[in-house]
Amino acid sequence: MTMSLGRSAWLIAFVGVVALKVVTARITDIVLFGDSYTDQSRAHSIANGTYPGKDYKEVYPPADTAADGGFQWPFYLGLYGNYTIWNYAVGGAVCSNKLTPLSDIPDVSSGQQAWFVQDHVVRNGTSHQKLLLDPASFIVIIFVGTNDVGVNSFVTNDQGTNVSLPNVADCQLDTLRQLHALGARQFIVNSLVPLQLTRLYSDSSDPTIYYPSPPHNGTVWHRTIFNLVHSLNRILRDGVRTLDTEWGGGGSVQWFDTYGFFEEMYNHPARYFNGSVPANVTGQCHQCPDPDDWRQCGIGDCTPDERDSYMWWDELHPSEQTGRNLAAEMHRKIEGKSKY
Ligand SMILES: *[C@@H]1O[C@H](CO)[C@@H](O)[C@H](O)[C@H]1NC(C)=O
Ligand SMILES: *[C@@H]1O[C@H](CO)[C@@H](O)[C@H](O)[C@H]1NC(C)=O
Ligand SMILES: *[C@@H]1O[C@H](CO)[C@@H](O)[C@H](O)[C@H]1NC(C)=O
Ligand SMILES: *[C@@H]1O[C@H](CO)[C@@H](O)[C@H](O)[C@H]1NC(C)=O
Ligand SMILES: *[C@@H]1O[C@H](CO)[C@@H](O)[C@H](O)[C@H]1NC(C)=O
Ligand SMILES: *[C@@H]1O[C@H](CO)[C@@H](O)[C@H](O)[C@H]1NC(C)=O
Ligand SMILES: *[C@@H]1O[C@H](CO)[C@@H](O)[C@H](O)[C@H]1NC(C)=O
């Protein structure tokens, strides 16, 4: 009896030491930069007149819905991992407005980073800065590129004459270097998703709400976007490895194969989609019957019960259920348990 009590006391003490180690290394905060694939409602807030959104607090449904028709994946990541989420992503954003200008929306390399600095870095002059977050306690996730390579940019050959994919990749890597200089030490770069699977970049030449006119050649877009996504992903992945080596333990950057994970969902839909109709990875829930009139969008949508059956919410954006799946996999990634 005494013996067994002593043993459990020892066990508790031992477990206590192990738990302490885990606690000191625990990730408590996630910082995100990106576009509408990640934004909860900053873009809406800006459109609503609260630009530049410094004191903006995330608005969640039913007050507002993200580009996935509901809660965006960082919300679920926060839920699954008990993380505090700092989501600086804005719908429509690119890595750099100087490289691939589409709008004045705060970009990942400057405007979004400026928000991060406002929230987390104390500066009292040019040379002194202090990061308020513990570098061991947070991870930065960058997930951008869809707009950089998309319509009115590379896929339609509208990029600047002196702008190439390596410039776009370097923009992401330089953003990591800047955040590293501010004191951040742990990063994940998400690859671009298989955009050729979306309605917008399918091989159909039919107009869509995101490109109602002029007429385009769907076959050409479909093939071009495939090449762009693969090329940018390859350059980024190699760059991430180089940067990880460059920091030599004074920082770590991991690659998340979002492309591979989306392919997995596409190829095994029944494992991932659970609405009231059979899983659907080719169509989308949200309908825009007249591509020239966005006010008609919503007519013919799937029902709320059916939503989670769809991989795509609309002609470009993943669904909320795809976001839950991504969040769950990203949580595994952060815990070192993901193969992506
Ligand atoms: C838009 O502005 C209104 C009025 O200020 C506010 O109630 C609402 O929450 C804002 N919506 C968003 C998405 O910021
Ligand atoms: C969630 O995180 C907070 C803050 O880091 C912590 O106080 C709380 O104990 C955590 N809850 C669980 C269930 O782990
Ligand atoms: C700024 O911070 C540095 C480092 O903490 C300190 O040495 C310096 O005196 C500060 N300068 C001002 C103007 O507060
Ligand atoms: C492209 O040219 C413009 C105008 O000359 C210049 O401002 C910009 O820096 C150049 N971009 C690159 C990536 O070289
Ligand atoms: C689209 O482009 C492909 C490849 O260049 C060509 O074979 C096809 O005829 C074009 N389709 C139309 C409708 O112009
Ligand atoms: C589908 O699964 C997710 C978890 O991935 C769950 O949160 C959601 O409520 C489920 N949807 C339905 C319609 O059961
Ligand atoms: C998938 O959804 C679309 C609606 O976007 C529908 O037209 C199509 O028939 C569905 N496919 C299957 C296999 O259910």
Automatic annotation (TrEMBL):
It comes from the Eukaryota. Pfam families: Lipase_GDSL. GO terms for molecular function: hydrolase activity, acting on ester bonds. Keywords: Hydrolase, Signal. Gene3D superfamilies: SGNH hydrolase. Residues 1-25 form the signal peptide. PANTHER family: GDSL LIPASE/ACYLHYDROLASE FAMILY PROTEIN (AFU_ORTHOLOGUE AFUA_4G14700) (PTHR45648), GDSL LIPASE_ACYLHYDROLASE FAMILY PROTEIN (AFU_ORTHOLOGUE AFUA_4G14700) (PTHR45648:SF22). This is GDSL lipase/esterase.
